[in-house]
Amino acid sequence: MKRSLKRSLNTALVLFTLSGSALAMGVEPASEPADPVVKAHEVACMTYEEYRQMQASDEQVQQQAYIDVVFVLDTTGSMGGLIEGAKQKIWSIANTIAQAQQTPIVRFGLVGYRDRGDDYVTTITPLTQDIDTVYADLMNYKAQGGGDTPESVNEALFTAVERFDWTDQDGALKLIYLVGDAPPKMGYQDDVKYQASCRLAKEQGININTIQCGNLQGTQRFWQEIAQLANGAFAKIEQSGGVVAIATPYDAQLAELDMEIQRTMLDYGDADTYAYQEAKRTRSSGIASKAAPEAAADRAVYNSSDAGRRNMLGKQELVDDVFNNGFDLDELEKDQLPEELQSLSIEELKAEVDRRKAKRDELSKAIKELAAKRAQYLKENQPKAGMDGFDQKVLEALIEQGARVGIEFERGTESKTEEPKESPKD
Asked: Which long-range contacts (C-beta less than 8 Å, at least 24 apart) are formed by 30-36?
């Protein structure tokens, strides 16, 4: 039975059992499983080289770690400190995830929640490798609304579990962090209650971690139960989030180097792809200019890591595709280039790509060296007051739960950065 079919049936069963209502779901019929005899015949007909290529491909997939993280944040009026702390630390958290010993595919998502009668009940940023998009949406979060104490935790949790495109890769690490200060409002008759959402999460291998901000009476027992039901961890932090941002002597230079790397990007493609890339570059420039220096430095380090390349490059980028993906410039249609480069001859275009590659390698090397110095500075100047903050509790759960699925993280603060690759010789 296909995983998607099994998931749909489990969803219907759990909701019917625990919420007292069934959902009408249209489910595609499962395709026939692969015939092992046919598969064996296909392998037997392969050349030795084809067989070795298949093995290498399988090994590469197995060595790749898949990590999905969705933050479910209470955005009502009392949560201002935590939201600001999350804005400061999301890149630092991403850097720790990038240190997985198996270079990870990292995706973040967001659910902001309030209560019925507020401007919104939930707002969503889908799971994506483009962490810039997540950060831009997070920067727009404002602590407003609320009023009465309970909030729409039930709807927020169900949204996080069932409205996101979670990876179906075996051995993936799939985490939800529910962060808030108020208990769920249990009186809405049409809500899917948190017990049902926890059952659905557990069935899909999603761990729900809960972080309580402050000491509001009545919240802790719900937060502890949710974590227990969904294989997560419970933590309590200060109402403000307890985040401590440490400025280093290297922050401004790292941010500037990252902006210089952005200027080496050479986007190309059809009209839709080029428009997407243009919007990404605009968003990237805005983030670089508005982010706090510490966050901008963390972002620069993340972008230079193996895991952060997709956030930096976007959908496709010509210099990277030529040197890392074997793209042949002779096959490029001129109208897929930026207008100012369309008049270049093929030799001139190759020279321009080589120039940008050399500059990017130089900048990447400088970022790697500064990142190592910054990591040492942070290690030596980490205040004890910051060890119980939002970001530290996120990382504690990440490391412990990653180990359950065989994903190990280096405990330092420096991301693994990609070594610049040599330009091919003529």
From this structure: 30/1, 30/2, 30/5, 31/2
